[in-house]
Amino acid sequence: MQPPAPKPGVLPLRPVGFGDILDGAIATLRLHWRKVIGFTAAIGFVTETVTVVLEHRFSDSSRLNDLRNNPRPTASDIVHALSGTLATSGLTLLVTMFASVITTALMATVVSRAVLGRDVTTSELRRDAREGLPHLLGLALLMPLIACLTIGLGSLPGVLIAASGSKDAGAALGLLGGLAGGLVMVWLYIQLCLTAPALALEKQGVLASMKRSWKLVTGSWWRVLGVQLLAVFLVGIATSLIALPFVLVGSALAGDGGGGLFDAGNAPSWTYLIIAGVGGTIGSAISLPLTAGCTTLLYLDQRIRRESLDIELINATREN
């Protein structure tokens, strides 16, 4: 019978499953929430502010109502009706991706120290963030850009056909191409999802960190996808429970004509969006470090599986 793996901190120093990764992320946030909640709340505030503006700008249900009343809609009619919803969802996804990359890189130092059972000071976090800021911003901008290019290239043939005069055929092809581009984007995102912790912990450049993520994920794509999806799903449920009271209050204060939660006839009002945004900010302050912690622990677990990092970590704990 093998002795249990050492656990100096929040994660056993052996290959682990999703339960250990989630427990480690929760334990890290519980131990170090005073140090991280400030910057995650700030990132969440910026994300929710952008989301509120996008929802108010693009959430117009009149186009969907027109589509509902159209007995024989064409492909161009469908694209026109869904354009606002697709624009809101797409831009919100890009902003969320940007925030996730920033948070994961900033949390990597905290999580790696927590795995060894060590503390990290606020000054150390600020120093690491300041030193790695250029590369971090470059990565945070590059990841949404890759997503835009992937979906854009998939939709480009349909856009060109529509511009030449065949609107219905172009719209249909554009939708199919965009869907195909979205699938490719998911595959690329999972391949590159460990770039942020690699960037923060290995102190390499953006491209070198992307290559590290690619190497660590290759051969384990489905496992990495499963861990990421479970983390997002479970953390998303908790975030929704936090935000739900704010959504209900915002809907009640917006009134029947204010475009609240149950009013499908109008765009959401500022009252509803602002109150719901406050709930979203509070939820993001908790969800962002949890998902970032899961990603960093997944990165460490992949290195343990591929590179026997656990031996180095055990030696590091014995030296201190």
From TrEMBL:
This protein's UniProt keywords: Membrane, Transmembrane, Transmembrane helix
**What's one Pfam family the UniProt record gives for this protein?**
DUF7847
DUF7847 domain residues: 81-299
Keyword check for Transmembrane helix: yes
Source domain of life = Bacteria
Where does the chain cross the membrane? Answer: 36-54, 91-116, 136-163, 175-201, 222-250, 270-300
* PANTHER family in alphabetical order: EXPRESSED PROTEIN-RELATED (PTHR33133:SF1), OS08G0107100 PROTEIN-RELATED (PTHR33133)
Protein name according to UniProt: Glycerophosphoryl diester phosphodiesterase membrane domain-containing protein
What organism does the UniProt record list as the source?
A: Actinacidiphila acidipaludis
